[in-house]
User: Which sequence fits this backbone?
């Protein structure tokens, strides 16, 4: 049987419970414009949520920004979180309108956009179509792509780690704080000199390490004696990527929660390379020019303090070309490489030893 | 061959093809999408009649969820697909009528106004004349967290920081990105990007800390 090319639209009933939820969220707002906006946004998210559940697509209202009251009062937002995939933005129009409005605030960090049309009584939402990306504030209905394209996009987004979302503390499944994956050795920056007396307190050690780090460059002067502040100053002002990573690494040790140190997470692949299990760490450090510095590191897991020899850690671009490979020697504690990527860039990381290999996909 | 026979045949073919693909697969989703569309386009989904029109959508949504989950149980030799669907829908409405009858015995009935479905739900919302607590709390937090929020700023421009941008982006005096771009002499995209990656995550974190996540 041939499937015709006519554009499929799907009508989703809006239940009383859906309208009550939208009313509840709308009543938190301060002016008539916001009240209407939040009412529409909430219903658009709920309609899309019902639709995707019918099709067996996993959704999470709880992880959606639009389910965070502070996000609602501050932003014209209608995102629906699809675990492991990202945020789908659900915009809406009233019946009779032929143009949909896409606020600038939601044109970032989205896996795509759907448009829902309400009837007069808000008893039905019709899914009109999909857009993978939006470049204008206003889009005509006839420019929308079919819902089939949405379904395809959802499948192609499977298992791509969304690094841009990490900065908003939305962490992909399986990725954890590094201490949970590899324990204490996460916090031993190797460049800190070995001759610091053990009698020194931890904070003295930190102070020495910060002073040492400042002394290895002559671009920025240390103005703050407080270690944490001095490191943030360095992170924000130096142009030297090596120094920035070292500052970040020290800051991880002093205060891993400090957002100035970027984000780092690790994953246990759950597979062995030779006799060893290996964990992958990814750290991201946003740069002032809106690009992202990225550090990739492979650590030994469990008892071993060394990686198996000849383990390969590679970076591949979207077309599959290798742009970096590093290989472990006899007794490496870890191997790593660093690079800079732009928002939207895609890359793959491959860990391999002999026949055993695993590849993770990322989008910046 | 009449139109209806042709329609039911088409629907049955879709169902048969769908069953060959596992739940959650792209092929099954595309076929299910097409099936739902054709059912809706046929005009043969029961419209509810006089039984509780205000609860029709509740019953219909329940029926769609059931339909999508149980399509593998459909037996074309027993009834056509739409009859099968409509029978379930009708029984859900009768369920709701029964539940309401039970509830009515124990509580006061709704006012006429609430039961009417002619009114625009948005008109029904009270227009609050004072700042609601969540916005008030957020604005207060922006003031009290000043130094932390000021620490997050556009590179080499401490005056373009999270505290300042949050104040300008929140009601009641929200500015557009164009206005802010002029005010700070920066590109809209620079400010927008900084806001999305630095300021907005702070707001989300504050919302989470306050327990303002709905479940």
Assistant:
């Amino acid at each position: 049987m041939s499937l015709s090319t006519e554009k499929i639209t799907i009508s989703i009933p809006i239940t009383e419970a859906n309208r009550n939820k939208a009313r509840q969220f709308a009543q938190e707002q301060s002016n008539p414009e916001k009240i209407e906006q939040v009412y529409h946004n909430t219903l658009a998210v709920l309609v899309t949520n019902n639709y995707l559940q019918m099709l067996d697509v996993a959704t999470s209202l709880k992880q959606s920004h639009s389910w965070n009251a502070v996000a609602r009062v501050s932003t014209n937002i209608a995102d629906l979180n699809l675990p492991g995939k990202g945020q789908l933005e659900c915009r809406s129009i009233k019946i009779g309108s032929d143009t949909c409005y896409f606020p600038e605030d939601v044109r970032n960090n989205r896996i795509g956009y759907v448009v829902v049309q309400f009837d007069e009584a808000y008893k039905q939402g019709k899914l009109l179509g999909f857009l993978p990306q939006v470049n204008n504030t206003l889009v005509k209905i006839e420019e929308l792509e079919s819902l089939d394209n949405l379904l395809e996009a959802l499948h192609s987004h499977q298992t791509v780690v969304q690094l841009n979302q990490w900065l908003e503390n939305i962490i992909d499944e399986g990725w954890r704080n590094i201490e949970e994956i590899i324990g204490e050795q996460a916090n031993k920056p190797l460049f800190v000199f070995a001759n610091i007396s053990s009698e020194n307190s931890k904070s003295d050690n930190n102070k020495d390490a910060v002073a040492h780090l400042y002394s290895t460059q002559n671009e920025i002067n240390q103005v703050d004696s407080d270690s944490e502040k001095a490191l943030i100053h360095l992170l924000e002002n130096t142009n030297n990527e090596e120094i920035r990573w070292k500052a970040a690494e020290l800051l991880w040790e002093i205060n891993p929660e400090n957002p100035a140190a970027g984000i780092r997470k690790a994953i246990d692949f759950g597979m062995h390379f030779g006799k060893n299990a290996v964990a992958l760490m990814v750290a991201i450090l946003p740069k002032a020019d809106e690009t992202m510095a990225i550090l990739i590191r492979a650590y030994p897991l469990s008892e071993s303090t060394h990686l198996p020899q000849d383990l390969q850690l590679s970076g591949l671009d979207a077309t599959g070309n290798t742009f970096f490979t590093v290989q472990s020697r006899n007794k490496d504690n870890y191997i790593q490489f660093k690079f800079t990527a732009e928002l939207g860039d895609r890359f793959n990381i491959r860990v391999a030893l002999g026949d055993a290999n695993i590849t993770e996909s990322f989008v910046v | 061959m009449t139109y209806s026979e042709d329609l039911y045949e088409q629907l049955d073919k879709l169902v048969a093809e769908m069953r060959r693909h596992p739940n959650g697969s792209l092929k099954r989703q595309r076929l299910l999408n097409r099936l739902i569309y054709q059912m809706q386009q046929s005009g043969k989904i029961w419209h509810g009649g006089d039984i509780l029109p205000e609860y029709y959508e509740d019953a219909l949504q329940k029926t769609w969820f059931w339909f999508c989950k149980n399509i593998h149980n459909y037996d074309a030799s027993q009834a056509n697909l739409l009859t099968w669907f409509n029978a379930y829908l009708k029984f859900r409405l009768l369920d709701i009528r029964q539940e309401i009858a039970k509830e009515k015995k124990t509580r006061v009935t709704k006012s006429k106004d609430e039961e009417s479905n002619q009114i625009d739900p948005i008109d029904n919302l009270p227009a609050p004349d004072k700042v609601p607590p969540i916005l008030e709390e957020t604005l207060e937090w922006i003031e009290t967290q000043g130094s932390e929020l000021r620490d997050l700023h556009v590179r080499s421009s401490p005056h373009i920081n999270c505290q300042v941008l949050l104040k300008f982006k929140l009601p009641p005096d929200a500015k557009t990105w164009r206005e802010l771009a002029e005010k700070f002499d920066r590109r809209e995209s620079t400010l927008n990007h900084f806001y999305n990656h630095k300021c907005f995550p702070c707001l989300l974190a504050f919302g989470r800390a306050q327990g303002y996540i709905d479940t």
About this structure: Chain B touches chain A through 72 residues (CB under 8 Å). The radius of gyration of chain B is 27 Å. The mean pLDDT of chain B is 86. The longest strand of chain B covers residues 157-161.
